[in-house]
Task: structure prediction
Amino acid sequence: MQTRVRSRSDVWRGVIVVATDPFGHTPRRPYLILSDSSHPFAGNQYIALGISTKEYSDSLPLAGAYKTGTLDRESFVSPWAVVSLMDSDIERAVAQVTSEFTDSAASRQTRYVE
Result:
């Protein structure tokens, strides 16, 4: 799935995208999209979780979670690293993970905002 995002329909819940880093630490980084078509501004703005090659105590390993595509390095979803990505920030889709993994990441994320 190493294709450039050509339309908004390429980005949906459970897709891993490469996008501009809104915090400016790296030029681009991968993110797991959590939002779906029911979210406000669907197709223009996405709720996503940051992905890192560093493992922390509450990180979720991506190994074994891929349905299609993959990342080049062992990577972990950081459920506390919530970002809002604009469609124009997204460079390409690179992978998709299982719905079970996505649901687990979303559930883990809520612990940080309760």
